[in-house]
Amino acid sequence: MFIWLVPFGHDITFTIGIFAVNIIVGGIIGIFVLAWKLVVAAWYIPLTIYRLATVGKGDGTDICIEE
Predict the structure, then answer these.
(1) pLDDT for res 20
(2) Is the residue at 59 inside a domain?
(3) Where are the beta strands (DSSP E) in 1-67?
(4) What are the pLDDT digits (tens) for 24-53?
(5) What is the distance between the alpha carbons of residues 21 and 45, in angstroms, rounded to a whole number?
(6) Percent of the chain residues past pLDDT 70, beyond the cut
C-alpha cells in the first residue's frame, strides 16, 4: 500500500489520475490482505473450539509438575 507514484512536471489531470491509481492499487492490495485474514480467522475459530472442547480428555497435552 505504500507505492506512491509522485508526478513531477505534469498538469493537474495527470496528477489526479496518478493519485487515483495509487488509491486503486492500495485497495487491491488491501482486498487480498483482508481475504487472507478472513481465511485465517475462519480456520482458527473452529480449531479453537475443538481444542477447548478436548482439553483434559487424555490426549497427553496435560502438564505435570513433580515436586
Answers:
(1) 87
(2) no
(3) none
(4) 988 999 999 999 999 999 999 999 888 888
(5) 36
(6) 72
* Domain span at 47: 9-53
Who's near 62: CB < 8 A, 6+ residues apart?
Answer: 56
**Whole-prediction pTM:** 0.57
29-37 own/partner pairs: CB under 8 Å, 24+ apart: 29/1, 30/1
Amino acid at 55: V
C-alpha cell at 38: 478472513
Grid coordinates of 46: 473452529
Is residue 31 within 8 A of residue 8, CB to CB? The reply is: no
- Percentage of residues in the chain having pLDDT higher than 90: 25
In a domain, 58, yes or no: no
